[in-house]
Amino acid sequence: MSDVKTSEAPAKAQRTLQIVVFKLGQEEYGLQIDQIKEVVITPTITRMPQTPPYIKGVANIRGNVIAIFDLEERFNLTRTQKEGNKYTLVVESEDVKLGLLVSEVPNTISVNPSDLDESVSIINDASTESNYIKGIIKSRDRLIILIDIFKVIDYEMSESIKKTVGAS
Amino acid sequence: MKNKEEEYKEIFLAEAMSNFEEINRVLTQLEKTPGDKNTVHALFRITHTLKGNAAGMGFTGIAEMAHVLEDLFGEVRDGRISLDENMFASVFKGVDTLGNLVNAVKDNSEVKYKGIKTKLDVLLKRAKEDSKNTSHTVQESFQSFHAEAEVESDDSNAPETSATPELNNQVSFSDLVQVPVRKLDNLLNLVGELIIEKDRILAAQAGKGLRSNEYARLSRISSDLQYSVMDVRLVQVGFLFNKFHRVVRDAATSEKKNVMLKLEGTETEIDRNVLQVISDSMIHLIRNCVGHGIEEPEERIAAGKPKDGVITLSARSETDAVHIEISDDGRGLNYERIKQKAIAKKLITAEDAEKLTREDLSMLIFEPGFSTMETVTSIAGRGVGMDVVKRMLDSIGGTIRVASSEGQGTVMLLTMPSSMAVKASLLFELEREVYAIPLAYTESVISLYKSDIHMAGGGLVATHLGKNFAVVFLKDIFRSPSDTAAQSANTLQNTFAKIHPEEKLEIVIVSFNNRKVGIVVDKLLQQKEIVEKPLMRPVDKVKFISGVTILGSGNVCLVMNIPHLLNFIFGFSAGNKAARNFTLN
After folding, report:
1. Cβ–Cβ below 8 Å for A156 and B550
2. Whose CA, among B238, B246, B397, B564, lies 20 to 30 Å from A70?
3. Where is the HPt domain (chain B) (predicted)?
4. Is 3.40.30.10 the CATH classification of the domain at A2-157?
């Protein structure tokens, strides 16, 4: 009963958060639904030279050629299944569009904003210093790590710029 | 289809109409906020453009009218005339007449404009006379007051015309539609998609063994559509060239030189985006001509040349490339100076310098940080720019060549694709991925046995048709991380060492800027016209790949950036050389 209450109450008081949840390694990660454009079956990926290993390459999704990321590899997580990346989550912002590999169809949940704990400070090791973790969602007995995918990308891009400057 | 003459007229009209409307808008604004410098500047600029365009098209009426208005706004801008109500009436009348003149071009009717032009001329002359008597400030203000009074009286003498309101009742529509380039880009993108989809269907059909002429109509229509869209994107180089009159004038004035600009082949058509990319480079090259090429008037006379230097811009198109030639009749390149400078800057060694041909020496001016000018002037001599020009051309697959004879001038030849959209390319396979090389860079395709290739120092060489060239395995390059400083001496021989001695190797010989390299690929596929799309973030930093295209199978094909690849390979060997020198010292 208490669950019903929590899902009803915010509808009146404040907007619920729509979170798309997918599994990476052993944990559940979430993205805000407005960052996601679609979920497709992973198309053939063309590998690209000069890219870090977590960029799997580029693929054609509805005529757009976008980069495909493997976040498990990016976050150094244990691999779920080698061949399991059947689906691609297409995320889009104003200036960047890319695909994230996921092993199963992500599901969408509505959470009460009060379930989102944004104050957690996650201790990262220095090399991955960037605040892409927006917060932790506690929903029933689930723990979902809410990330801002574009912060992850921004970090990559600033890194690659550093590299090219260093190389030249 | 209309002939060229008609087409130009249409374009001129559309531009003139929008100029005219702009003048009206800005002038009304000025009337509300007199003394606003920006609006006066805007008016000056617009009338100046209109004058230039009209003079170019030979519409003297419009040009004269615009000229007098331009002068007037010039005086207003410099504060020698202040516009009051009566002045505005005259100016508006002048502008309306200008509008009538523009409209008259359409139906070849006659418009009388001398009356109002003379009147504005008179106003101008008075203002100029005023400005001569500027020795006494008190008198000046009195004078201008006096002049205004006179203007007023002059105006009241002239019969008020009722023509103005009538004219404004008519709303005219231009036959041209202005379309943002963004929309055109989008359209071209969609056409690209269509072509890819067509290819996919054809590939699927061919697999089923059906007759391929089933889709002949589809092929024809889609390729017609593609060329039509590409045609829409073409603009005349004249639009860019005409802007250089001002560039030359400004540069010449600041250098105290006399320079004339001659334009040839202005009707040559080129993709608007290519034109945009080269415009900055062109400005740079032209300024260089004025700054470095053309001599001071005294020097020219001493050398027995006419006092005025001439810079000629000429354009011509050839199949799918456009050549633009920038030539001047100045002092030409000083090859000795280039040599010394290059040695001083450690770009080449003294022994190498003796071996270099003139053409090689000319290319040195495109090295970063190279400038032979001793003093830095405002327009040239900072040693930046020529390398930027080079890089800009590289990015669109263009080339630049320089020829010069001392004392007679310099010719720079820019060659660039007339369209950036479709490229004939050679497809090949490497580690199961498909890549494309634009045919513009491929010289030939050969196959050699391993025994034909020899290790030479840290690299590989082969001989074909009596010519030696370097050979690299693309795999090795893609594998070697570009940012590792510690390059083992034989990174480029890795794959070579591993392959079977009797293996036959497929080699594509690519060349760019007289640098030739044979690249070893796994398998050659076919030759194909591709629609290249730019890389999207976050992979747009990958320098080896200039873009992508989608194959008939729906898979992505990477398009090789040959200029960068060659620069990288030669930079790589230069890096090794530097490392060796270091250990020797």
Report:
1. no
2. B564
3. 1-105
4. no
Kindly report the nearest CA distance between residue A70 and chain B, in angstroms: 14
Provide mean pLDDT across the span B90-103. Answer: 82
Contacts of B311 (CB under 8 A, 6+ apart): B248, B259, B260, B261, B262, B286, B289, B290, B293, B294, B326, B327, B328
Helix (H) or strand (E) holding B461: strand B459-464
Q: Do B196 and A63 count as a contact with CB atoms less than 8 A apart? A: yes
Of A49, A58, A156, the CB nearest to B478: A49
CA distance B556 to chain A (A): 6
Decide if B556 and A51 are in contact by the 8 Å CB cutoff: no
For B320-334, write each residue's pLDDT tens digit. 788 999 998 888 888
Quick one: which of B343, B338, B337, B386 has its CA closest to B362? B338
Structure tokens at B97: 């007449």
In A, minimum Cα distance to B557 occurs at A46
Query: Which pair of structure tokens corresponds to residue A78?
Result: 């244990």
Phi, psi for B4 (deg, rounded to 5): -60, -45
Give, in degrees to the nearest 5, the angle at Cα B288 between B339 and B255: 115
ipTM over 0.90? The verdict is: no
Tokens 């004219």 identify what position?
B167
Residue A160's closest chain B neighbor by CA?
A: B541
> How many of the other CB atoms lie within 10 Å of CB of B127?
21
Q: Is the peptide bond before B538 cis (omega within 30 degrees of 0)?
A: yes
Torsion sign over Cα B353, B354, B355, B356 = positive
For A33-148, where are the alpha helices, taking DSSP H only?
71-74
Crossing angle between the packed helical segments B181-208 and B216-232, to the nearest 10 degrees: 160
Q: Return the domain boundaries, chain A.
A: 2-157
**B384 SS3 class:** coil
pLDDT digits (tens, 9 = 90+) for B30-51: 777 777 777 888 888 888 888 8
The model's pLDDT over B516-545, given as tens digits with 9 standing for 90+, comes to 888 888 888 888 878 777 787 777 777 788
Mean pLDDT of chain B: 76
Is the distance from CB of B463 to CB of B431 less than 8 angstroms? no
pLDDT score at B416:
85
Cis peptide before B34 (omega within 30 of 0): no
DSSP type of residue B402:
E
Per DSSP, A24 falls in state E
